[in-house]
Structure formats: C-alpha cells, structure tokens
Amino acid sequence: MAAKNPYELRDPREQYPKPPFPEQPQPAPGLAARMVPEPDHGEDSYRGSGRLEGRRALITGGDSGIGRAVAIAYAREGADVAINYLPDEEQDAQQVIKLIEDAGRKAVAIPGDLKDEAFCRQLVERTVQELGGLDILVSNAGKQVFRESVDEITSEQFDQTFKTNVYALFWITQAAIPHLPAGASIITTSSINAHQPSPTLLDYATTKAAIAAYTEALAGQLAEKGIRVNSVAPGPFWTVLQPSGGQSQEKVRTFGQDTPLGRPGQPAEIAPIYVLLASQEGSYMTGGVYPVTGGKVF
Ligand code: NAD
Ligand code: MG
C-alpha cells in the first residue's frame, strides 16, 4: 500500500485508501491483522537516521495502530523499545517485537491491563530493569466506545474509559518521573475530540480533554528537571480502535471522508511527529498539543 520511498513527492489525497471501506466488526480491543484494508504502520517505508540512538522507550498500546507505527520508527531511529498491550493482543504484539528486533534493537513485551494501578507501576519498573533506564515515555493506549445517548453509558464504561485513558497516564507518569534524566521526553496521545467532541463519544472526548490539560500542566512542572512533555492530537486514523466498537459500522464505512484530504490518516503518517518530540531536535518543544488531522481545524 505504501510507497517504498517515503520522501517521493506525491498527492496526499491519493497516497492511501479512501472511503468507502467495508464494514468489519471485531470485539474490542481487536487485531490490526484483521483489518481491511490493513493499516500501514511504516513496516516497508520508515527509514531511520540515528535520531534516537541509544534511547530507551516505553510505548503503551504499542501492539497496533499509532503505537505500533511509533515503535517501528523509534527502533529504526536507534532506540530500544518496551511495548505494553492487553493479553488478547499477543498476536499483533509479536509482529511488533519482531520488527523492533529486525531493526537491531532490544524489544521487551509487557502485556497487562492499565486499569490496574499496581500493574502500571510494575510496568515502569520492569521497563527500567530490562532496558537499563528510561528516556522516552509514550502514553498511547486508549479506550473508545461509541454510544448514541448519555443514557446508554454505564458507570462501568465511564469508569473503564477514565481508568484506561486518564488514571493510567497519572500512575505511569508518576512512577516514571523519578527515573527520567534531563533531556527525557513524555508524549501523550490526545485527540481532535478534546477540542471538537463527537456527540457519540461523550466519555472518551472528556478523557481526551483531560489528557491535553494534564500534559500542559505536567510540562510546566517538569521543565525545571529538563523533561519535556507534549501531546499529539490525531484526527481520524485507520486503526482497529474504530471498527472494534469505537464507531458504528456506518461511520467506519465513511471514516475520514469529512476531512479536507478526504480519507483517514494511516499510522505511518503520524509516527514522525512522535520521533521529533522524542528527539533532541525537539529541544524547545514542550507543553504543546500538536494536531495531525488531515486538515480538520480546531
Ligand atoms: P489501537 O486500538 O491500535 O491502539 C489502542 C491500544 O490501547 C490497543 O492496542 C491496546 O493495546 C491499548 N489498550 C486499551 N485498553 C487497554 C488496557 N486496559 N490496558 C492496556 N492497554 C490497553 O488504536 P489507535 O487508534 O492506534 O489508538 C492509539 C491512541 O490514539 C489512543 O489513545 C486513541 O484514543 C488515540 N486516537 C486515535 C484516533 C483514531 O482515529 N484512530 C484518533 C484520535 C486519537
Ligand atoms: Mg491493539
């Protein structure tokens, strides 16, 4: 699907598949391997140039979608990478582990549920142990369940969405900060939904606004330690989050159509900003929320 040469001049509207897409329900969290068309995570195209040589990174949700694209990019830029994911996602995760190792880097697989505070703290400790330290933390795991009406959101769903998207970010950053050296980078994953909330994603959109505020406040705190904190706010990206209950199948069919570029983004198209924010080239970038939306303005 992807061009082998990522630097070739091309029309971005024509670069990747456009709607309509086939309906493709999967139970959450879903597997990227079962998507039609399969997402492009940069497997055949991402070229590293030593921008993260010797860094040690932890990426939550690193098995699929945006997290997988970031894992591939980081490994090819020279970083050792630990990924976290849910046990049901082992098949996707093993593909990522192989891609990191193929790049000549150390890969660590740490499955487990981020809704559990004790696990979040262990995840950081295990990463530090296995990689010998931590320089880059990418908080990317997320839960998104669409509901037409506020009446249909159970307290259980509300709680799980907040635990996964907000509490886990708090637990993991709190555990990680004592390990992070000056020059380290924390990158969170917000959403266009923080600014332009979809009515059918009430609880999810609220967590994404919380993530943006948390990121900005934490950046203000950690500047005095020389640690930068930023957030990426994706628009519609072609990942398994959407067909596995994140949107109705009707919305999956037309996913990305309402953007100026007329199609959803592919995970490979967002990984480069996670590289920039993690690398020393981003040394003056902190406290920012960076949109990657195919032209949707917020
Ligand atoms: P994805 O489904 O590929 O990735 C999400 C990952 O979250 C899963 O792979 C899973 O490993 C992890 N996860 C969920 N619940 C978990 C739990 N309890 N414990 C541990 N891990 C858990 O989808 P994606 O689109 O790549 O999502 C990555 C991030 O991007 C999410 O934060 C999502 O909200 C955000 N985002 C996505 C889009 C989009 O259109 N795809 C738009 C805006 C923001
Ligand atoms: Mg996954």
From TrEMBL:
It holds the Pfam family adh_short_C2. Belongs to the short-chain dehydrogenases/reductases (SDR) family. Keywords: Oxidoreductase. This is Dehydrogenase. Residues 1-49 are annotated as: Disordered. The lineage of its organism: Bacteria, Thermotogati, Deinococcota, Deinococci, Deinococcales. It comes from Deinococcus metalli. InterPro entries: NAD(P)-bd_dom_sf (IPR036291), Sc_DH/Rdtase_CS (IPR020904), SDR_fam (IPR002347). CDD domains: SDR_c1.
